[in-house]
Design a protein that fits this description.
Layout lengths: L4 H14 L22 E4 L2 E4 L5 H17 L7 E9 L7 E8 L6 E6 L2 E6 L4 H9 L3 H4 L3 E8 L19 H13 L2 E5 L2 H10 L4 E10 L10 H24 L12
Parallel strand pairs: 3-9, 4-7, 7-8
Antiparallel strand pairs: 1-2, 3-8, 4-9, 5-6
């Protein structure tokens, strides 16, 4: 899963090559959910690629519908991934973050759902085994960038919840913003995004192993504006896709054909 239709179509095309599937030149990938005019859905062999929009409400709807698809299709042992971009907290832009724990805006490892006016707090649990497996598939020597595991803060909006200074409203001062970002960094938060708590809680409730893999496109401790070029951003966006593709390839073919030799850090 990823935020936009274009990203998921790109991943569908990419994973087709990575797992050795070929498509007739006269045929093109089709968004099989296009008539609903809400989200995109591409199927490549055993891989289903879905866009989820922005924020917890949007991804929660898609997850409910995907889980029903899994049930009716009688899928066996599905694994869910969310890929995307995020804001880093004290780490280099371009770093890939595998979420170890999804926290809400109050630094709680829960996803709050209000049912019949009563709040329910659901635990945001991600698969530790899957996190370890993804980390084992990183190639620091050849990748040329860091892949780390760390806590992710999931915010309810893009601006005020993330203490940005460039929204339509800003009722806090720069020193308050800096203090907030340093405080959450001290608590182990390494990135911010807007979907991980719903994703973690709902997949956990469904007993499906899941992981969140995002690339940082800026360091929030240094500012709110993205300074990287469009070409560099496109390259960074491929990084989570490459790591997830390695996992899928290993699951399907029982091994990894890349060089696994040790090297100096």
């Amino acid at each position: 899963m990823g935020g936009t239709e274009s990203r998921m179509e790109q991943f569908a095309t990419f994973i087709m090559t990575e797992i050795g599937l070929k498509m007739n030149k006269a045929v093109r990938l089709t968004n099989i959910a296009a008539e609903a005019h809400r989200y995109s859905l591409f199927k490549v062999g055993p891989v289903l690629c879905a866009s989820h929009g922005i924020g917890n409400p949007s991804i929660s709807i898609v997850l409910h519908e995907l889980l029903k698809i899994m049930h009716y299709a009688k899928c066996q042992k599905p694994v869910f991934f969310r890929m995307g971009t995020c804001g880093g907290i004290g780490i280099e832009p371009g770093t890939v973050v595998i979420t170890s724990e999804a926290l809400d805006g109050q630094l709680r490892a829960v996803y709050e759902v209000v049912i019949h006016t009563e709040p329910q707090l659901r635990p945001t649990v991600l698969s530790k085994d899957l996190i370890r497996e993804l980390k084992s598939l990183t190639e620091p020597c050849t990748d040329g960038y860091d892949t780390i595991a760390g806590k992710t803060m999931c915010c309810n909006d893009f601006y005020e919840s993330q203490s940005r200074m460039d929204g339509a409203f800003c009722d806090y001062k720069p020193d308050q913003r800096t203090e907030f970002l340093k405080r959450i960094s001290m608590s182990g938060v390494v990135n911010m995004e807007m979907e991980s708590t719903a994703f973690a809680a709902i997949t956990h409730q469904a007993c499906i192993p899941a992981a969140v893999v995002c690339v940082t496109i800026l360091n929030r401790l240094e500012g709110d504006q993205i300074e990287a070029s469009c070409e560099r951003l496109k390259d960074w966006e491929l990084r989570p896709q490459k790591l997830i593709a390695r996992y899928i390839h290993k699951v399907l073919y029982g091994g990894d054909d890349t060089d696994s030799s040790n090297c100096d850090s």
